[in-house]
Amino acid sequence: MTNKKAEYRKDVAFINRQKELAFLEEYISDRPESILFLHGPKSSGKTTLLYKFLEQVGKKQDLNVKFLNLRETFTNVYEDFLKTFFEVQKEGEKKENLETNINVGFFKINSTVEKKILEKRADPFKVMKAEFLKLNKKGVKPILVIDELQALDKVYIDNDKERLLIIALFNFFVAMTKESHLAHIIISSSDGYFINQVFTDSRLKKTAIFYKIDYLRKEDVTEWLLNLEKYSKIKAYKLSTNDVEKIWDTVGGSMWEIQDILSGLFNKALDQVTSLYIKKIRNMIVDYVVKPGKMEIEKLLRHFIDHDELSKAQIDPEEEKLLRDMVRQNILYYDPTEAKYYPQGRSFHNGIRVYFSPES
Ligand SMILES: Nc1ncnc2c1ncn2[C@@H]1O[C@H](COP(=O)(O)OP(=O)(O)O)[C@@H](O)[C@H]1O
Ligand SMILES: [Mg+2]
């Protein structure tokens, strides 16, 4: 039987990331010493990069990867966390993806252990540690990847809401890396405030590496857009250097938005697509700003007409509250390692400018 791959008029591109992939490869070739935190604005390519990385190294090395994408799972009670981290395996069943060594189902346990964990008669962290020990003994490197970890931010282990799960997890991660060197722990998050909590915790700061995954650089965007057939399998149209310039000016290196523009170009002219795009972002800002405190919000946004960033040192606590909400709503991004606010990509920067001067 021959498998024919489905053909679409446009494919999902994967551009460059050599530097990031090399960094990750280096991280896992050292003995586990520290937790790795990948951070960066929403849609900056963290998840895609992680999958690409694991696909590449999984073929070459003896790894056991447990990949958990918390955005895809519902987790706000402790039992949900247990169900996401542990998977009950029936006898004789084998569900691992042998080709890549990536298992998304997580720590495999039998139903007796599950019962014990749920009844709080067994410690889930001990179960995880035992699995890491077992893998190390076999000469396999365990890698635990948790995508969008902030989803667990408000989960308590106990009914009295005294023991925060995230604290217990961090203690466990520190023990697995810095103290016993049993597993590599890679964590990603788009939530700058969450990363900030971690970043300002002195113990974690000492045991973690922070690495920013940003949008693509201009040269990568240029390479991509001048070679659409090669990277995106687009045959219906070609772009000129002027067109590339225009797309860069509109959305910068934000891949998701570039793909959106590319889709629009199948039936509209570039100028029309880009101006509709900025209008859309402007309208999102209009919608966001209509609320009590509008004047204060506008005052903060006005800063970005002429500036790329706003430093935390320049603001007061009242302003911080407003900025925090703008970060939560993905209008701005907060970079904890630099203590700076930025508009969420070039499109939002443009949207803010157009909001204040609709004529331009
Ligand atoms: N290196 C890349 N080249 C081209 N497109 C990419 C690349 N990395 C990610 N993308 C695209 O960008 C979008 C967002 O990526 P994603 O990995 O989900 O971001 P994040 O996890 O940071 O929110 C996806 O549509 C993805 O296909
Ligand atoms: Mg993601």
Key structural traits:
alpha/beta, Arc Repressor Mutant, subunit A, 2 domains, 3-stranded antiparallel sheet, 16 helices, binds adenosine-5'-diphosphate
Bound molecules: adenosine-5'-diphosphate, magnesium ion
Structurally, the number of domains stands at: 2
The amount of helix comes to 40-55%
Indicate the CATH topology of the largest domain: Rossmann fold
CATH H level of the largest domain: which superfamily? P-loop containing nucleotide triphosphate hydrolases
Low confidence ranges: none
Order of helices and strands: HEHEHEEEHHEHEHHEHHHHHHEHEEH
Beta-strand proportion:
5-15%
- Radius of gyration equals 23 Å
| Principal-axes shape call | globular
- Identify the CATH class of the largest domain: Alpha Beta
Largest sheet: 6 strands, parallel
Strand order of the largest sheet: 4-2-6-7-1-8
Overall pLDDT: 89
Protein model, in words:
With 360 residues, this protein is α/β, with parallel strands linked by helices. The protein folds into two domains: 18-212, 3-Layer(aba) Sandwich (Rossmann fold), CATH 3.40.50; 218-356, Winged helix-like DNA-binding domain superfamily/Winged helix DNA-binding domain (Arc Repressor Mutant, subunit A, Orthogonal Bundle), CATH 1.10.10.10. It has helices at 18-29, 46-60, 78-85, 111-118, 124-137, 165-179, 192-200, 202-207, 218-226, 228-232, 241-251, 255-264, 270-289, 294-306, 317-328, 345-356; strands at 35-39, 63-69, 86-88, 102-103, 107-109, 141-147, 184-189, 208-212, 310-311, 332-335, 340-343. The strands form three sheets. A six-stranded parallel β-sheet has the order 4-2-6-7-1-8. Strands 9-11-10 form a three-stranded antiparallel β-sheet. Strands 3-5 form a two-stranded parallel sheet. Strand 6, helix 6 (165-179) and strand 7 (184-189) form a beta-alpha-beta unit. Helix 11 runs parallel beside helix 13, helix 11 (241-251) crosses helix 16 and helix 14 (294-306) crosses helix 16 (345-356). Bound molecules: adenosine-5'-diphosphate and magnesium ion (MG). Adenosine-5'-diphosphate binds at residues 12-15, 17, 40, 42-48, 190, 255-256, 259. Adenosine-5'-diphosphate (ADP) is lined by residues 12-15, 17, 40, 42-48, 190, 255-256, 259.
